[in-house]
Amino acid sequence: MSLSDPILVVGHRGAAGLAPENTLPSFKRACDLGVGAVELDVYAVEGELLVVHDDTLERTTDGAGPVLGRTLADLRRLDAGGGWPIPLLGEVAALLPDGVGLNIELKGPGTAGPVAAFLANHPQPDVLVSSFEHAELAHFRQLAPDVRVAPLFDRWTEDAWQIAESLGAWGINLSRRIATPERLARARELGLRTIVYTVNDLAEARELVSNGATGVFTDYPDRITVAEITAPRQT
């Protein structure tokens, strides 16, 4: 399994529906369930890359306030679920078995440089870097021209194809609500992979793939699997 699989199941923040999101147990659970890749979010704090989604701490930890308002030591002492700390990117990368890809989302400001430096010092054989912040992603692309990139889109914009082209993108990551059959078909025409987020219903995953999506992000990689998505439909 890898990012190059024809149909890809990506564990969203690990296995966010089965274990606390963006924690080491969540990523291990996703890997144990056979995902092709895991997705995570990073913030740069004191030269380290912390794996956390929100810009504030209340939802996913026992802390409060902005992520970037605390020291690295303070952040690492917080409970991110089940007694586990907010992990570092290096800890997650070390956990991944051979054949499981890594989708790093540039979430916090100024993450392009630290992520490019991390990948230069810790080469990952199967990595994709994505972001809603397309300028930050373009900066990353300049720093690491050989690494796959995919812009993220929550709402459709008519210049999406131009954005992907300007980035030399490997693919585009789309929200469920904008992943229409027409857009999925156009992406294929342009040679772009399409991974749709966040898909937790098997019937929906099957329909998206039938319409041309090449992958889905899911919180539940126990029930959204490549075998289930591609299984012949009962008539």
Strand residue content: 15-25%
The N- to C-terminal Cα distance equals 29 Å
Principal-axes geometry comes out as globular
CATH class categorisation: Alpha Beta
Described by strand count, sense and barrel closure, the largest sheet is: 8 strands, parallel, barrel
Name the strands of the widest sheet in spatial order.
1-2-4-5-6-7-8-9
SSE string: EHEEHHEHEHEHEHEHEH
Give a brief description.
31% of the residues lie in helices and 21% in strands. The protein has helices at residues 24-32, 72-77, 89-95, 112-121, 134-143, 160-167, 181-189, 202-210, 226-230; strands at 8-12, 37-45, 48-51, 101-106, 127-131, 148-153, 171-175, 193-197, 215-218. Helix 4 (112-121) packs parallel to helix 5 (134-143).
Notable characteristics:
single chain; 235 residues; alpha/beta; TIM Barrel; 8-stranded parallel beta barrel; 9 helices; 9 strands; 21% strand; globular
